Amino acid sequence: TTVPTTNYAFHSQSPINLRFCGLRREAFGISILTRSSSGRVRLSTRGRSKRTSASTGNNGTPPKSFDYDLIIIGAGVGGHGAALHAVEKGLKTAIIEGDVVGGTCVNRGCVPSKALLAVSGRMRELQSEHHMKALGLQVSAAGYDRQGVADHANNLASKIRSNLTNSMKALGVDILTGFGTIVGPQKVKYGKVGFTDNVVTAKDIIIATGSVPFVPKGIEVDGKTVITSDHALKLEFVPDWIAIVGSGYIGLEFSDVYTALGSEVTFIEALDQLMPGFDPEISKLAQRITPARDGKPVIVELTDAKTKEHKDTLEVDAALIATGRAPFTYGLGLENINVVTQRGFVPVDERMRVIDANGNLVPHLYCIGDANGKMMLAHAA
Q1: pLDDT tens track of the chain, all 381 residues?
Q2: Domains 64-212+327-381 and 215-323 share a fold
Q3: Name one GO cellular component term (predicted).
Q4: Which residues pair with 191 in a beta bridge?
Q5: Are strands 187-191 and 361-367 parallel, antiparallel or unpaired?
């Protein structure tokens, strides 16, 4: 397919290098464009033509011993990137997903949270009389439509999720729906509850199952008044006063959103400073702009982190549990290949090869992203 160069503002011979939270350009529906010697831009069909697998015969079909060259368990940012890279290298690839394509980043993490932060930023601008006057603008009391804000975040996530799905389908990646479980070396079963499981084999397997919100013992999450970040991103209601348990980046992002929308926020942190692990000066600033307040209904028992003695009781409208994330590896079937997790994380070496309980490498098995605990960030996956 060719298009005139005058329709595009770029004429570089190198592909566009666009990334967001580790997402490849395909997440935004952007194709790879290159310039030919005739001066016309060509839409690359790399990966769409019939391929010969790196481990197959001349007819492009997988060997009889394997259904695929590569199976990826989990279609988040890491799994999507691995799948696209694999087909670019000519591998017959399948990806197993038990929920929705896009994983945490697209559906319950960076994409919707940044959409909400964009709204909170605009609200603060509109609420700043000094800033508006400096621009020569007069704005009456700024307001918002809660459902409209929630739809804004959801629509962005939905669009990127659709682009991720379409990009894999266009390149010939098989998307297998169901929860994946390793049942033996180079063998995975997948399926939905109530349906017969399917078993597939592959020369190599990549675990990319990501993570879920971590909820400490003693906290009962009901999804309404006691919530995690997964629930908060839906913005089903904006409480008058919310206690945020945990003051890492997740808690601080939501404090920005809630306060911009009119909520009062109290942080509850076990350590002696906000943003533990971050620069102390940033922590001091966060303490100054995040005041603690008295309030109402959800009961929060506060104890001393060291002595465990009861210190106080808070009654608030809602509580957000933002105490970090835990690897989503339960039920993965690692015991079938003699792999023991460490606090839920899959042990790997520097090349992401999985290590078994005896300290040996498990042949043809890899683990990337949050599930291995190396660095729980989307761009690292």
Answers
A1: 333 333 323 233 333 333 455 565 565 554 443 444 444 433 343 444 333 334 443 333 444 589 999 999 999 999 999 999 999 999 999 999 998 899 888 999 889 999 999 999 999 998 888 888 898 988 888 889 999 999 999 999 999 999 999 999 999 999 999 999 999 999 999 998 878 899 999 999 999 999 999 988 888 888 888 999 999 999 999 999 999 988 888 899 999 999 999 999 998 877 666 666 655 554 444 333 222 344 446 877 777 767 777 777 778 889 999 988 999 999 999 999 999 999 999 999 999 999 999 999 999 999 999 999 887 766 666
A2: yes
A3: mitochondrion
A4: 179
A5: unpaired
Domain range list for the chain: 64-212+327-381, 215-323
CA-wise closest residue to 251 among 161, 200, 95, 259: 259
- For the domain spanning 215-323, the CATH number is 3.50.50.60
As a whole number of Å, the CA-based R_g of the chain is: 24
* Span 64-212+327-381 CATH architecture: 3-Layer(bba) Sandwich (3.50)
